[in-house]
Write a structure and sequence with these properties.
By secondary structure, the protein is of the alpha/beta class. The protein has 3 domains: 130 residues, 3-Layer(aba) Sandwich (Rossmann fold); 124 residues, Alpha Horseshoe (Serine Threonine Protein Phosphatase 5, Tetratricopeptide repeat), CATH 1.25.40.80; 167 residues, DNA Cyclobutane Dipyrimidine Photolyase, subunit A, domain 3 (Orthogonal Bundle), CATH 1.10.579. Helix content is 49%, strand content 6%. It is built from 21 helices and 5 strands. Strands 3-2-1-4-5 form a 5-stranded parallel beta sheet, with helices on both faces. Helix 5 links the parallel strand 4 and strand 5. Helix 4 packs across helix 5, helix 6 crosses helix 12 and helix 15 packs across helix 17. It is globular. It binds flavin-adenine dinucleotide.
């Protein structure tokens, strides 16, 4: 054994502010580190990873390999058909690399934790140490707790406590640099694959330039041009008012601490005051963090169970035709259809629309949120269990800090408010391209028939009553 460090890259596909990479390089200063990425199609399929997300991650691994090569760090690429085979593949790579320790950034989902525990057992039996770091969050789960030592389940007090820590520990929490260039090792890099069987997509992947350099470029451009106007523009799907950084944060091409630090710097050093646009954007990064902590503390949300156990008895409808119409963007509600078609075409959906369409799914169609959550996961390039589950359970009324059951968005008034001229609808529902701004949110029946656009699949007022009854029955 050459006493090297093996850095297993997973959700941290970057060289800057990567605690696993930085700390492993520190610990193996003289002997060096070797990187590893495990291609694990069975695991990705089992977790409903969208083909676009997998291809985006693979492209990010190729960029990572090139960035590591500049630091003389070889990257091994190994294959494991299923999650169960991953620990052995990592152990074999560690042996091949002459490593005495394995470093990685933690993933908090239940299956991933079990996989890592198995690796730890195997590695320790083989005389290797395993060191887990926190690279997907700014403050690790367990470090933001109530005075009674319990996890927060409501966002606002979580945010307050989070900001207090963030403010008090600035020097310790500053983003880490890339490790220094090491001396060349006699280990040859292995080429990351371009594609994987079972993961192909029609989405134009050119929309999403992959990798750390692209992520930092996008972050810089957003901080220079979009950050200060974020509060005013973030809810308008027809304009590019948000950062579109979620795919990069999800695969870890961008560290959340780098994003936070750069926004804070642009805001004159303040994390919660200063310009409203910047403060609101940083608050969204804290929402991301909140849902990661919730998932780490309440593993039931990884197991298809509602955060609020009493809501498990809610009677959802069984309506495959409605499910299909929603998935394909044929509900007859223009804003919902535009949103669903944006998702299918680009792998991404604007946040306001995620809320509108998820609320429509769970409240107007009274379909089980787990079906919607799964469809999103299978389509989203930024699919992330904690944020996706958090968003779906919020919309369904079953989650932490959820919208109360009687808060039901009216999709038509939401459309009038957030897409007033129908510009977004016209982009994604070409049948309605020539409809006036007045009619576009709910075209009259004859016009729909003439344009080949379907009638609404439900009557919103009646659907609302039915949902309220179902919830009242549950409460009773
Ligand atoms: C039903 C539903 C499902 C969702 N599924 C996902 C998902 O799978 N992956 C995902 O990253 N986000 C998800 N979100 C959260 C949010 O919609 C996206 O993060 C956001 O639209 C990404 O666009 P952006 O990068 O331009 O965000 P910006 O507005 O620029 O926000 C900056 C970053 O903050 C984080 N963020 C913003 N809003 C939220 C939020 N509500 N919850 C958690 N983090 C947030 C994201 O990392 C985002 O990139 C979901 C929301 C809902 C309502």
């Amino acid at each position: 054994m050459a006493d090297r460090g093996l850095v297993w890259f997973r959700n941290d596909l970057r060289v800057h502010d990567n605690p696993a990479l930085f700390r492993a390089a520190q610990a193996h200063l003289r002997t060096g580190v070797v990187g590893l990425f495990v291609v694990s199609p069975g695991e990705w399929q089992a977790h409903d990873a969208a083909p676009a997300k997998v291809l985006f991650a693979l492209a990010a691994v190729r960029e990572l390999s090139a960035a590591l090569a500049k630091l003389n760090i070889p990257l091994l690429v190994r294959h494991a058909a299923t999650a169960a085979e991953v620990p052995e593949a990592v152990l074999k790579a560690a042996r091949d690399a002459g490593a005495s320790s394995v470093h990685f950034c933690r993933e908090y989902e239940v299956n991933e934790q079990r996989r890592d525990e198995r690796l730890t057992t195997l590695a320790q039996a083989a005389g290797l140490s395993v060191v887990a770091h926190h690279g997907a969050v700014m403050l690790p789960p367990g470090e933001v707790m109530t005075q009674a030592g319990k996890p927060y389940t409501v966002f606002t007090p979580f945010k307050r406590a989070w900001l207090a820590q963030w403010g008090a520990r600035q020097a310790e929490l500053a983003p880490l640099p890339a490790p220094a260039r090491q001396k060349p090792l006699p280990v040859t890099s292995e080429p990351p694959p371009e594609r994987i069987k079972g993961f192909s997509t029609d989405i134009d992947m050119g929309l999403w330039p992959a990798g750390e350099a692209a992520a930092l470029k996008r972050l810089e451009a957003f901080c220079a041009k979009g950050l200060m106007d974020y509060k005013a523009r973030r809810d308008l799907p027809a304009v590019s008012g948000t950062s579109a950084l979620s795919p990069y944060l999800t695969v870890g091409s961008l560290s959340p601490r780098t994003a936070m630090a750069m926004a804070q710097h642009a805001n004159g050093g303040s994390a919660d005051g200063g310009q409203q646009g910047a403060a609101t954007w940083m608050s969204e990064l804290i929402w991301r963090e909140f849902y990661k902590h919730v998932l780490a503390h309440f593993p039931r949300v990884c197991m298809h169970r509602p955060f609020k156990p009493e809501t498990a008895r809610l009677k959802w409808e069984d309506n495959p035709a409605h499910l299909k119409a929603w998935q394909e963007g044929r509900t007859g509600f223009p804003i919902v259809d535009a949103a669903q078609r944006q998702l299918l075409a680009t792998g991404w959906m604007h946040n306001r629309l995620r809320m509108i369409t998820a609320m429509f799914f769970t409240k107007d169609l009274l379909l089980d949120w787990r079906l919607g959550e799964r469809h999103f996961m299978r389509c989203l390039i930024d699919g992330d269990l904690s944020a996706n589950n958090g968003g779906w359970q919020w919309s369904a009324g079953t989650g932490t800090d959820a919208a109360p059951y009687f808060r039901i968005f009216n999709p038509t008034t939401q459309s009038e408010k957030f897409d007033p001229d129908g510009e977004f609808i016209r982009t994604w529902v070409p049948e309605l391209a020539k409809v006036s701004s007045k009619d576009i949110h709910d075209p009259p029946p004859l016009l729909r028939a003439r344009l080949g656009y379907p009638p609404p699949i439900v009557d919103h007022a009646r659907a609302r009553d039915r949902t309220l009854k179902a919830w009242k029955a549950l409460k009773a």
